[in-house]
Design a protein that fits this description.
Jelly Rolls; Arc Repressor Mutant, subunit A; four-stranded antiparallel beta sheet; about 20% strand; globular
Length: about 240
């Protein structure tokens, strides 16, 4: 024995296993950056919080100084007019962002955000988002993809509001809530949502929502079974002229 201690190959890494025969030990490869790690791990400028059902995340008029990412749960965005009329402008779920207007110079929140179910939400300070987008192109691409998808959804909502009947608008809202037409797998069972909320989203009265919901159930497009179950056949309402 010459008194020299050597680490076992598994501690040096596979590429260093032959270092004892004169070969140069190579450093371990740096793991690839995973952009979603920014959204799932708290750190500088990033805090995670749990919200109970109906608990506010922020209110219309609050300072816009951060972006939010939904890790689990659902959040609704609402706006209130000067005369007190409230409208639901979006219902968001897991992997959605909201509050991103601060990145475009928005100083105050233009809407209120409220948890619709028990939710886990990551808050990322404005400057931290900007830093991560500059430092990690993969994260910037992920965020840009979401913003573009959200913009397409807003345009579709506008066309829907302008040209479709309240019956078709309700059918579309129910299908979107159940994730039909999205890349992710549909979730036909929707957690409890009030007819008042649906009326605010569709832009009609609660009585009309009740009428159409009963019609959809009678035709077998939806059913109530521990929640609201939406069938793909509801698409017929949108496709039928």
């Amino acid at each position: 024995m010459n008194g020299t201690l050597t680490a076992p190959p598994d501690e040096l890494g596979a590429e260093a296993a032959g270092a004892g025969n004169g070969s140069v030990m190579k450093p371990r490869a740096k793991p690839a950056f995973e952009p979603r790690s920014i959204l799932t791990k708290a750190g500088q400028g990033r805090t995670s919080a749990d919200y109970r059902k109906n608990q506010p995340v922020f209110a219309q008029g609050d300072a816009a100084d951060g972006v939010f990412y939904i890790r689990k749960g659902k959040v609704k965005l609402t706006v209130v007019s000067n005369d007190g009329k409230e409208a639901v402008i979006a219902i968001l779920g897991a992997d959605d962002f909201f509050g991103e207007g601060c990145l475009a110079g928005q100083l105050r929140r233009m809407a209120s955000a409220t948890a619709m179910s028990d939710s886990s939400i990551m808050r990322i300070e404005k400057q931290e988002v900007i830093f991560q987008m500059r430092a990690h192109p993969a994260f910037a691409e992920l965020f840009l993809q979401y913003v573009l998808s959200r913009n397409i959804r807003i345009e579709e909502d506008l066309v829907d509001q302008l040209f479709n009947s309240s019956e078709k608008r309700l059918a579309r809202v129910l299908l979107l809530l159940a994730n039909f037409g999205k890349e992710s797998k549909p979730e036909p069972l929707i957690s409890k949502i009030s007819q008042e909320t649906l009326a605010e989203m569709v832009g009609t009265t609660r009585a009309r929502i009740s009428f159409f919901m009963n019609k959809f159930r009678r035709l077998g497009f939806i059913e109530y079974n521990g929640g609201l179950h939406v069938h793909g056949s509801l698409l017929n309402v949108i496709l039928h002229d």
